[in-house]
From TrEMBL:
Protein name from the UniProt record: Zinc finger MYM-type protein 1
Domain DUF4371: 48-220
Molecular-function GO term, any one: protein dimerization activity
Native source species: Sander lucioperca (Pike-perch)
Classification via PANTHER family: DUF4371 DOMAIN-CONTAINING PROTEIN, PTHR45749
Region (Disordered): 570-595
Domain HAT C-terminal dimerisation: 488-544
SUPFAM superfamilies: Ribonuclease H-like
């Protein structure tokens, strides 16, 4: 009877509740009290969420670095392709045990478009902050800017050049700005706004580099003049480019072209499209035509169209072939300089030395033997393709009554001898190249250039006090003569002078490279992307080196700060916010072509 009463009491609610309390009390011996257990649970939750965010950072970093679109046109659960970002997370889940076990709360999956934008912004800001920290350690920099058409808008790319604490020259992309106006004031204001937004006002800007357009280079009202009003020490460096272009656009059937090459026993090769921005392609374009001339002529003959026959007629002229051979020789000499000038770590002194060597080579070509070599190669090419030298008197002037004539149509003489080709084609072209190269870096002034040369150990004026005075005076650096005597110890003023010489840019090629990234990112499939997202993705794509050095925990901390205001955002509100963002920035994944 007593046993039954005990068992009945054991089953009672009071006994069960009391035993539960007792077990909880005993657990405090090993797990701590209730408050400590709550803290432990919270810490475990935070650790799991950060581990989850680490994987999201990895997926976002990968897509951003490679310039791959994030979104898809259909991201429903039933979709076979939910976009690269979600598909990337699904792929990780297949191989990651943590993702297979972890189920994030429905309102904090961080997979929405809104969260994507915040994560991309967090990464971009971390990269930019890393660059700014290095610049502030350097205490001086140069700014480079260029603008390009991006569909219906004009984008301004701003890059900076500085010397790191380790003595390494760096050129970094700072960002894109959408231009509201195309005048010098608007562009200068945008550059200044970009610099001020990163709190660079206390640093010394030693130089500015832009293209040669008058709105940028104008000495009175141009961008460089307006920028120097705010930064007096910022000398202007003109980013020159050899724009010796040949007009040779042939619309040929590609398959027929390859077939004719095989018939003629030529090694199959492609013609190189002419470009006004990629300088090194000029000589490749010319050589491609010379190496495939017989195939081009045969292909044009087979096409039998008025345009093809007209192009063939131009190519079959001795004068045209002479010019092709001439440009192949001249541009071949400058090709190495073109490539060198596009490097990020080159300094002005070495660039001038390279230019001087090229200039000397071109000057030595201005001889009878130099012109005769070009003529001999051109005649061999003519003979191989059955092209005869023109004979006969001067061509008479033709009348074009009732027509609009865009070029001179007066009487011209045929060039028939080596001397005529040399005097009328080779020497004028060679003289123009020599003249342009002579004045290439003259914009800085002779005194400043002498100071920069004196910072180069390979020059005769290395550490010359007289040469360094003008450079030190311009940038308000107090030069101490005694330091020159013990230069190996690298006293502060000498170090500052060398740093200035290395910081001055030679070209603005970094801006051109950023436009190449812009064209890869802002395709017609992603043409509704917002400006902020475009800028952030451009920074991630261009600054890959800095991106690789960023600590993921720093990105997560910055992301958490952006998320603080939205921690308790309702699911429906987030869904509506996502829809609004999607409408603003559009789909970036490939869409089906409309028939």
């Amino acid at each position: 009877m007593a046993l039954e009463s005990f068992r009945e009491h054991e089953r009672s609610a009071l006994h069960i509740s009391t035993m539960t309390c007792w077990q909880s009390f005993k657990s405090t011996k090993t797990h701590g009290d209730v408050i400590e257990q709550l803290k432990t649970a919270s810490a475990a939750e935070i650790s799991e969420r950060r581990q989850y965010l680490h994987l999201i950072v990895a997926a976002t970093t990968f897509l951003g670095k490679q310039g791959i679109p994030f979104r898809g046109h259909d991201e429903q659960e039933s979709s076979q392709n939910q976009g690269n970002f979600i598909e990337c997370m699904k792929l990780l889940k297949q191989f990651d045990p943590f993702l297979q076990e972890y189920t994030p709360p429905s309102h904090t999956t961080y997979l929405s478009h809104f969260s994507q934008n915040e994560m991309i912004t967090s990464i971009s800001q971390e990269i930019t902050e890393s660059i700014i920290k290095q610049m502030k350690i350097a205490k001086m920099y140069s700014v480079m800017a260029d603008e390009a058409r991006d569909r219906c808008t004009e984008q301004l790319a701003v890059c900076v050049r500085f010397v790191t604490q380790q003595g390494v020259v760096r050129e970094c992309f700072l960002g894109l700005r959408r231009l509201q106006g195309f005048d010098a004031k608007s562009i200068a204001d945008e550059i200044e706004a970009m610099l001020q937004s990163h709190n660079l006002g206390d640093l010394l800007c030693v130089a500015q580099a832009y293209g040669g357009a008058s709105v940028m280079s104008g000495a009175v009202g141009g961008v460089q003049a307006r920028f120097r009003e705010r930064h007096p020490e910022a000398v202007y460096v003109h980013c020159y480019a050899h724009e010796l272009n040949l007009v040779l656009n042939s619309l040929v059937n590609h398959n027929k072209f390859i077939e004719i090459q095989k018939e003629l026993g030529l090694r199959p090769s492609e013609l190189v499209q002419l470009s006004t921005t990629r300088w090194a392609c000029q000589v490749r374009s010319v050589n491609a035509v010379l190496n495939n001339l017989s195939a081009i002529l045969a292909c044009l003959s087979n096409m039998n169209t008025s345009m093809a026959l007209g192009i063939r007629s131009k190519l079959c002229k001795t004068k045209t072939l002479y010019m092709l051979v001439m440009f192949s020789k001249l541009l071949g000499i400058t090709e190495g300089l073109h490539r060198y000038l596009q490097g990020e770590s080159l300094d002005l002194s070495k660039a001038v030395q390279y230019k001087t060597a090229v200039l000397q080579t071109l000057t030595e070509l201005r001889t009878d033997s130099g012109g005769e070599d070009v003529f001999r190669r051109a005649m061999a090419l003519c003979e191989a393709n059955d092209i005869q030298l023109p004979v006969g008197p001067r061509q008479k002037q033709k009348r074009y009554d009732g027509f609009v004539v865009e070029s001179a149509c007066g009487s011209t003489s045929n060039l028939t001898t080596s001397d005529e080709f040399r005097q009328q084609l080779f020497y004028p072209c060679l003289d123009r190249m020599v003249e342009e190269l002579t004045h290439r870096f003259s914009g800085l002034g002779e005194a400043l250039m002498s100071g920069i040369h004196a910072c180069n150990p390979t020059t005769e004026t290395f550490l010359s006090e007289e040469a360094l005075k003008s450079l030190a005076s311009h940038y308000k650096i107090q030069l101490k003569p005694e330091e020159l005597l013990v230069a190996k110890n690298m006293f502060p003023s000498l170090k500052a002078l060398f740093q200035v010489a290395l910081t001055i840019p030679v070209s603005s090629c970094s801006c051109e490279r950023s436009f190449s990234a812009l064209r890869r990112l802002h395709t017609w499939l992603r043409n509704t992307m917002g400006q902020d997202r475009l800028n952030d993705l451009a920074i991630m794509s261009i600054e890959k080196d800095n991106l690789n050095d960023i600590n993921p925990d720093s990105i997560i901390d910055r992301f958490a700060q952006l998320k603080d205001k939205d921690t308790n955002i309702p699911v429906e509100q987030e869904r509506l916010e996502d829809k609004r963002r999607r409408d603003d920035e559009g789909s970036e994944e490939e869409v089906k072509s409309r028939s």
